[in-house]
Design goal:
Helix content is 31%, strand content 22%. It is α/β, with parallel strands linked by helices. It has a 15-stranded mixed beta sheet that branches. The protein is elongated and about 80 Å long.
């Protein structure tokens, strides 16, 4: 799971090899009614209940654990990580591909180019009226200044609910040849940079809206770089804004970045049977951060999907709907793999995907069971998901309630691969067992574990290895995956109720 508001260092170019990710329509056999063991034909709801129960029984954390062990072995053999664009990630994709191919799925790689930004120089300082150094963090993919830096007066963009996001935040002509000072918030860094460039600014300084750390900005792609851009702290920015209001302030920026490209790929596998115009999609990101092997984040979700997919292949040949599994690359640097996948689909292909289920970190050591808040009943952060998301949440909550497992809602905050699907209007849901957040006293009382401690104390660290797995949570969430796959593969009617 990527860090929210983190300093991502990568972006996506167009596909290098746009591997096919949608396959031929199901054969007539794929659309036939499934039969119970007694040979009788069943209604969709009955078929769904039967397949869901069968998958839950057959899919286990004990069985899936071998996939975690393999991912650990891959990381150990490739410098301790499985990050996108590295040999460790490449080996991880081969493992998933081979498992699903052997199980009988139609499997393909979807290749794309990953850009990473490397900072070579970064500094910012006030020249007058009160000389001093600023924290000055270069934006990822920032345009470089000339050798020796850039010196210019400062103009402050209007601070409102969308600071520096729109053209009228920049008074006409007053930014030409100047460095724009902009407060963080409301739109992307790339949008702020583009607006400042259009206003005539020759540089950009973005100050934070909270905390005491400088902004770690990211323009997301080298094509978004027009002017040198740096981030500073809230206190530094507010002091500068006050000085600009009283007279001329001159800054010096010295920035240089380098862009490096890497090849990476998603793995897509789908059932041979089932209606191609009614696709049940599931996904988990396969890449780790460079700091560690990423066995919980997100070997756990990846292994859970492999386990359920293999069990589905053994007993789910006569499906009403096509089931498609995706193992995404480059989630940790901006949801790039899932974003690329969704953007590669035509309007009709997007319409054919009836729902998307996301599983990212499902075995956190100090786990709490979180279900994505499809109906926005928690009234926290983002609003409700696309129509059908509330029903996905209801299905998962109902399954957990039957197992008497305490659970809580979690916001669609944009930190994982459901984001591009939601943006495309596709209903989404899934589970999550917590990252760097702290477990509450109520959660510890109901679910066990340690209050006041992170759900995953090894989040994005070297310690996220095979010992960093809560096997009870892992097994539980594999059951959640199995129940949802079995239900939706045969019956989508609950999405409408």
């Amino acid at each position: 799971m990527r860090v929210l508001r983190n300093r991502t260092t990568a972006s996506l170019l167009s596909a290098v090899v746009a591997a096919p990710v949608l396959f031929a329509a199901a054969s007539p056999a794929g659309a036939q009614d499934a039969a119970r063991p007694d040979g009788h034909r069943t209604a969709p709801a009955d078929k769904a209940q039967w397949l869901a129960a069968k998958l839950v029984k057959k899919s286990t954390g004990k069985s899936a654990y071998r996939h975690l062990e393999k991912l650990q072995q891959i990381a150990d053999a490739h410098g301790g990580n499985r990050a996108a664009g590295t040999p460790g990630h490449q080996a991880s994709t081969r493992y998933v591909y081979d498992r699903l191919k052997k199980a009988g799925y139609k499997v393909t790689y979807q290749n794309f180019t990953l850009y990473k930004s490397r900072t070579l120089r970064e500094s910012a300082s006030v020249l007058s009226p009160e000389p001093r150094k600023l924290s000055g963090r270069a934006f990822a993919f920032s345009k470089s200044t000339p050798q020796g830096g850039l010196q210019a007066p400062v103009a402050a963009a209007r601070v409102d609910t969308t600071p520096g996001c729109e053209a009228d935040d920049y008074t006409s002509d007053t930014f030409t040849g100047k460095i724009a000072l902009v407060k963080r918030g409301a739109c992307t860094f790339a949008e702020k940079e583009a607006a400042a460039t259009k206003a005539g600014a020759v540089g950009l300084v973005v100050y934070n809206h909270s905390g005491d750390q400088p902004v770690e900005g990211d323009l997301e792609h080298p094509r978004n770089a027009h002017i040198p851009a740096v981030g500073i702290t809230k206190a530094e920015g507010e002091k500068l804004a006050g000085q600009v209001a009283g007279g001329e302030v001159r800054l010096s920026l010295d920035v240089a970045t380098k862009t490096v490209s890497h090849k990476t790929r998603n793995v897509i596998a789908e059932t041979r049977g089932g209606r191609a115009d009614r696709v049940v999609a599931l996904g988990a990101h396969l890449d780790s951060v460079p700091e560690g092997p990423g066995i919980n984040d997100n070997g756990s979700g990846s292994a859970g999907l492999i386990e359920v997919a293999e069990k589905l292949a053994k007993g789910g040949k006569k499906l009403a709907h096509k089931v498609r599994f995706g193992w995404w690359s480059a989630e940790e640097v901006g949801l790039l793999g899932s974003d690329h996948y969704v953007k590669s689909l035509s309007a009709q292909q997007k319409k054919n995907i009836k729902l998307y289920l996301n599983f990212d970190m499902i075995a956190s050591p100090n786990a709490a069971e979180f279900v994505y808040d499809g109906d926005d009943s928690d009234k926290t952060g983002a609003g409700a998901g696309p129509a059908g998301s509330a029903q996905i949440e209801k299905l998962i909550n109902g399954f957990l309630d039957k197992k008497k497992v305490p659970h809580w809602g979690t916001d669609f905050d944009g930190r994982s691969d459901y984001g591009p699907f939601i943006d495309a209007g596709i209903p989404a849901g899934g589970t999550f067992t917590g990252a760097e957040g702290l477990k509450t006293a109520e959660q510890a009382a109901k679910a066990g574990g340690e209050a006041g401690r992170p759900y995953d104390p090894n989040y994005h660290a070297k310690g996220d290895d095979i010992t960093n797995i809560n096997r009870k949570a892992f097994d539980l969430n594999i059951d959640v995956i199995a129940n949802a796959v079995g239900t939706y593969a045969q019956d989508l009617s609950s999405l409408r109720h």
